[in-house]
């Protein structure tokens, strides 16, 4: 309880510094805001310093933040976060098996919509089709988001496509790179994978209880950080951009984009998302092979249906609907 109270107070402090931007906030102002003494404010400021924040304290003016830590702690992410729901509850862990696993437990226990679980490192990061997801320490965004949309279970894959669009928009906003989406959920740069998305469900037959969206973004890895088997197929934003990017800023922008697209989707349906998704897709109009569990389909990708299903036209003119597959371009 005491711990919870402390983090609630720090949340208030961070929100105040977010609003004040470069301005100083006086000790008295902060004390009134959180309803404690100025000495207690000072103790909270010391806690923020321990987390890696640098704060300037000037007599008669007060405090302001001058530098933020390169961690993805809740305080660091909240500083400047522009969302209403997503990321309002953040669980940050140093090292976990998989953020998906924690998200499933929290969702089951009733976590509110928009709860985010972030880890610096995952020891058994999960990918699609039971693959491993390489998640080394403090170099990427390893994050799960809990959503509770009121939609029928078959529509859940649409959330993967919404997330892919949000990731592309976030990377485009922060860099001059132009990532592309490979159906259904890979984000590529120069043909190599920079992001993977894994959408999992807690549902009854006719009702979604929660959707857990797992997002893995390779941000600050160098080529040498990858094991040999990944070197030819994976890349990171910093490899492509030539410099490092703040993971916390990327998370903030991504959560804002995802929230906007999610609202648009709940309000207007999938059609506007479909148009955006197709505008970023690498495979549409191209010939490709889709390897499904029942066999391979070769043909031209026509686009996606209203439900996010890939349509492939084979040489006989027959159109196949592909729900789940590995795509080779
Ligand atoms: C894929 O492309 O196969 C999907 C990869 C998804 C990786 C993310 S990282 C955060 C979350 N936790 C996991 O264990 N997996 C997802």
Characterization of the model:
With 329 residues, the chain is of the alpha+beta class. The chain folds into 3 domains: 2-67, Winged helix-like DNA-binding domain superfamily/Winged helix DNA-binding domain (Arc Repressor Mutant, subunit A), CATH 1.10.10; 74-280, Bira Bifunctional Protein, Domain 2 (BirA Bifunctional Protein, domain 2, 2-Layer Sandwich), CATH 3.30.930; 287-328, SH3 type barrels, CATH 2.30.30.100. The protein is 35% helix and 27% strand. The protein contains 10 helices and 14 strands. The chain has helices spanning 2-20, 27-34, 38-50, 74-78, 99-108, 157-174, 228-231, 237-241, 247-268, 271-280, and strands at 54-58, 62-67, 90-96, 116-122, 140-147, 180-182, 186-189, 192-203, 208-218, 287-292, 295-304, 310-313, 319-322, 326-328. Strands 3-4-5-9-8-7-6 form a 7-stranded mixed β-sheet, sandwiched between helices. The radius of gyration is 22 Å and the shape is elongated. It starts with a helix and ends with a strand. The relative contact order is 0.11. The model has no long low-confidence stretch (mean pLDDT 93). Bound molecules: biotin.
């Amino acid at each position: 309880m005491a711990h919870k109270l402390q983090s609630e107070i720090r949340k208030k402090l961070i929100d105040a510094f977010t609003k004040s931007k470069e301005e100083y906030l006086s000790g008295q102002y902060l004390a009134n805001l959180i309803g404690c003494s100025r000495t207690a404010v000072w103790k909270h400021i010391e806690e923020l310093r321990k987390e890696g924040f640098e704060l300037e304290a000037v007599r008669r003016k007060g405090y302001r933040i001058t530098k933020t830590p390169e961690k993805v702690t809740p305080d660091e992410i909240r500083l400047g976060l522009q969302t209403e729901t997503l990321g309002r509850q953040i669980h940050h862990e140093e090292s976990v098996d998989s953020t998906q696993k924690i998200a499933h437990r929290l969702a089951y226990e009733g976590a509110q919509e928009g709860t985010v679980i972030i880890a610096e490192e995952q020891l058994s990061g999960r990918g699609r089709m039971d693959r491993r997801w390489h998640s080394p320490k403090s170099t990427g965004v390893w994050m799960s988001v809990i959503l509770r949309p009121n939609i029928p279970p078959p529509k859940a894959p649409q959330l993967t496509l919404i997330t892919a669009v949000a990731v592309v928009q976030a990377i485009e906003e922060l860099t001059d790179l132009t990532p592309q989406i490979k159906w259904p959920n890979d984000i590529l740069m120069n043909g190599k994978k920079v992001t993977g998305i894994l959408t999992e469900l807690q549902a009854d037959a006719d009702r979604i209880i929660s959707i857990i969206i797992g997002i893995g973004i390779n941000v600050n890895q160098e080529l040498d950080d990858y094991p040999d088997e990944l070197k030819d197929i994976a890349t990171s934003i910093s490899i492509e951009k030539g410099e490092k990017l703040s993971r916390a800023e990327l998370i903030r922008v991504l959560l804002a984009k995802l929230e906007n697209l999610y609202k648009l989707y709940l309000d207007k349906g999938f059609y506007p998302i479909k148009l955006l998704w197709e505008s970023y897709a690498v495979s549409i109009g191209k010939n490709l092979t889709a390897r499904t569990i029942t066999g391979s389909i070769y043909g031209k990708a026509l686009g996606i249906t209203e439900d996010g299903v890939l349509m492939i036209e084979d040489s006989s003119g027959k159109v196949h609907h592909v729900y789940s597959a590995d795509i080779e371009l």
